[in-house]
Amino acid sequence: MSPQDRKRKKPTIGVTGGIGSGKSVVSQILASQGCAIIDSDHLIHEELGTQDVRNLLCRWWGDRICHDDGTLNRSAIAAIVFDDPAELARLQDTLYPRIEMRRRVLTEQFKSDPKVKAIVLDTPKLFEVGLNEVCDAVIFVDTDRLSRVNRVLSTRGWTEKEFDRREKLLNPLDKNREKADYIVENHFGLDDLRSKVESVFSTVLTSFSDS
Length: 211
Description:
The chain has about 210 residues and is of the alpha/beta class. Helices cover about 55% and strands about 10% of the residues.
């Protein structure tokens, strides 16, 4: 790719980190800077709301995964898949190709939008599923475990056991931190975090346009 072609393109930035580290907050800050956000958790939530996915999962697991109004009970689904690796793999094999297709469509839309400065992929499994390969830069949101556990317990209603069970499905955090291009510490409040994220974003834009 020539320098002229690259300058006409937009950087793709991956945002990852441990559960409850503040990835969504970092993405919101990047959105305020003109980035378009592709949130994997949001896409999964939308896919679970589609009729064909609901019908498929109900055939697998029956009415126990449905609320009275017919919508899927995500807590019931989580209880099934996080206790059975085979069921988790089956669910991922169903959802991940759908998510990837939607990510590609959104990426192309954002590339053609002149208001979008960069595209952000917000996903806890960025490295695990290989999305780092499509990123021009990866930001790892670094937050201590106690803060992450307390945040998740208060906002999602999980137990610490549930937190540990889900985090074990990710690569070791030290491994992902080492692979990242930028580390943003989320320890000192929102203003400090915003300043760090804006600084990293400025650096990414400059290095992308200069390369």
